[in-house]
C-alpha cells in the first residue's frame, strides 16, 4: 500500500498515478505510523480506564471509512478494527491505561521487586491530543443483521451503564427480545456484516458488449462470475478496472471514439501489466 502511493527518487509520479492517472489519497497514512502506541476507547468500568493501549498497524482497506484502522491490543494481542483513537501525547497522557497494560506483561516472579509498580513515563509521541470520544448518536436507530442472521435495531442509550438497548428479532419465530449491548459490540457486528458482504461480492469475468444509453452515455455489458450479466456505466467500470476496459476498446477499435479516448494510455502500457 505505502509503496504504491510514494514516488521513487527522481520520479514525479507514484505507481498509483501511473496506473490510474489519479493522485492517491494519503490521508490514512499521515496520522499514525506502524506500531505507534495509541489509545482507543473501551467499555471498561471504574476503576479501570476507559482507554486501552494498542499499537497502530495499517489502514483497514475493506472496513469502515478511509480513516478506519487495524490496531493490535497491547495486552491481549488481538487485532481490532477501530476508527476512534488518539496517539499518546505527553500533554494528554493516560498513565493508568499504559501502566495496566505493562503490569499484565510483567513476569510473575519478580523477586524482591515483586509488588512494586514500575515507573511508566509513556512514549513521547506528538499528536493533536484529541481525546477518544464515541458519538452515541451515530448508532441510534441503526439496523443490522448479527452473525445469527437476526435483525437488530438500536433503540436507546443508557448513559448510566454506557450500554445500548437493542431489539433482536428471530428470523424463524419472529419473536423479539431486547438486550443491552456496548457500542463496540454493535460496531463489531456491523463490521463483521461488512466483511461478509465484501466476501460475497461477485467480480465480472468479461466485457461482452457496449452501447449508448438514452442520455448519450456509454455503457458496457458485464458478464459476472455467477453467470449473470448487467449493463453498467463505462465511467464506473473504468474506475474499477481500466485495464480490462482498455483491452476491450482496443479489440473493438474504440480508442479514437469520444468517451473511450481516456483508455489510450492504458492500452499502450497494457503489455507491462
For the largest beta-sheet, the strand count, sense and barrel status come to: 5 strands, antiparallel
Rounded mean pLDDT score? 75
Low-pLDDT ranges: 99-135
Radius of gyration of CA atoms, rounded to a whole number: 25 Å
* Proportion in helices: 10-25%
Structural class: alpha+beta
Number of strands: 12
User: What is the approximate shape?
Assistant: flat
For the largest beta sheet, what order do the strands appear in spatially?
4-3-2-1-5
Q: Provide a count of the helices.
A: 7
The H-and-E topology, N to C, reads as HHEEEEEHEEEEHEEEHHH
Tell me the distance between the termini.
Answer: 17 Å
Strand content: 25-35%
If you had to describe this structure to a student in words, what would you say it looks like?
With 273 residues, the protein is an alpha+beta fold. Helices cover 22% and strands 26% of the residues. It has a five-stranded antiparallel sheet with strand order 4-3-2-1-5. Strands 6-7-8-9 form a four-stranded antiparallel sheet, covered by helices on one side. A three-stranded antiparallel sheet has the order 10-11-12.
Amino acid at each position: 500500500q505505502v509503496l504504491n502511493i510514494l514516488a521513487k527518487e527522481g520520479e514525479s509520479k507514484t505507481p498509483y498515478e501511473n496506473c490510474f492517472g489519479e493522485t492517491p489519497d494519503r490521508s490514512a497514512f499521515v496520522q499514525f505510523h506502524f506500531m505507534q502506541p495509541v489509545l482507543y476507547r473501551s467499555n471498561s468500568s471504574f476503576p479501570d480506564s476507559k482507554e486501552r493501549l494498542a499499537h497502530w498497524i495499517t489502514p483497514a482497506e475493506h472496513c469502515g471509512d478511509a480513516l478506519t484502522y487495524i490496531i493490535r491490543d497491547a495486552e491481549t494481542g488481538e487485532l481490532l478494527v477501530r476508527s476512534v483513537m488518539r496517539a499518546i501525547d505527553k500533554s494528554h497522557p493516560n498513565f493508568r491505561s499504559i501502566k495496566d497494560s505493562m503490569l499484565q506483561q510483567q513476569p510473575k516472579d519478580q523477586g524482591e521487586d515483586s509488588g512494586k509498580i514500575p515507573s511508566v513515563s509513556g512514549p513521547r509521541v506528538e499528536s493533536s491530543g484529541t481525546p477518544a470520544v464515541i458519538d452515541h448518536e451515530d448508532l441510534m436507530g441503526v439496523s443490522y443483521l448479527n452473525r445469527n442472521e437476526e435483525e437488530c435495531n438500536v433503540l436507546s442509550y443508557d448513559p448510566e451503564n454506557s450500554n445500548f438497548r437493542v431489539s433482536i428479532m428471530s428470523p424463524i419465530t419472529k419473536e423479539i427480545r431486547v438486550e443491552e449491548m456496548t457500542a463496540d459490540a454493535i460496531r463489531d457486528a456491523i463490521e463483521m456484516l461488512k466483511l461478509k458482504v465484501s466476501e460475497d461480492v461477485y467480480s465480472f469475468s468479461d466485457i461482452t458488449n457496449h452501447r449508448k444509453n438514452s442520455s448519450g452515455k456509454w455503457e458496457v455489458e458485464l458478464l459476472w462470475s455467477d453467470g449473470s450479466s448487467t449493463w453498467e456505466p463505462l465511467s464506473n467500470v473504468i474506475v474499477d478496472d481500466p485495464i480490462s476496459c482498455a483491452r476491450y476498446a482496443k479489440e473493438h477499435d474504440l480508442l479514437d471514439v469520444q468517451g473511450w479516448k481516456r483508455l489510450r494510455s492504458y492500452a499502450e502500457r497494457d503489455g507491462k501489466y
